[in-house]
Amino acid sequence: MSIKPAIIVADDLPVGLKANFAAVLGMSLGKMRPDLVGPDTQTGDDITLPGITSVAIPILAAPAEDLPRLFGEAGDLPLRLAYMQAAFEARNYADYTDRISGAALADHAPKAILLGGPRKAVDRICGRLPLVR
Question: Other C-beta atoms within 10 Å of 39: how many?
Fold first, then answer.
């Protein structure tokens, strides 16, 4: 199955946080789906550049209050990940895991989400969202 990933960030975030949250979710995508990373490439002068994504990953924007709904609508997709407010507030990874495990999913506020699945399913959820600015 070909997969279409998309990252959606809260539109009220400063641009630096939008970029950071998208980068964090992109790293997780590479871990979850290493097959989406292409092979290393040689430059003309024999320098090896590590592989980069082999699929486009649009970075979209949505109102922060829409992110929980969009995340819920993606429940049947094979890829669904959220960057929660707890990650932004945590001092380290152990603190993050404590914060996440200490509350139900509905009690966490996503600041960015990653969705991935069949193109039609992903487009149905986020196809009308604008690119991040």
Answer: 8
Q: Smallest Cα–Cα separation from 65: which of 17, 11, 103, 19?
A: 11
Question: How far is Cα 102 from Cα 96, in angstroms, rounded to an integer?
Answer: 10
Per DSSP, the three-state class of 127 is: coil
Closest among 19, 12, 130, 28 to 82, alpha carbons compared: 28
Is the whole model's pTM more than 0.90, yes or no? yes
Q: What element of type H or E holds 84?
A: strand 79-84
Structure tokens at 2: 């070909």
Domains and CATH numbers, the chain: 4-33+57-126 (3.40.1490.10)
Distances (CA, A) of 94 to 80, 88, 99: 22, 13, 9
Q: How far apart are the first and last CA of the chain?
A: 31
- pLDDT tens by residue, 43-57: 999 999 999 999 999
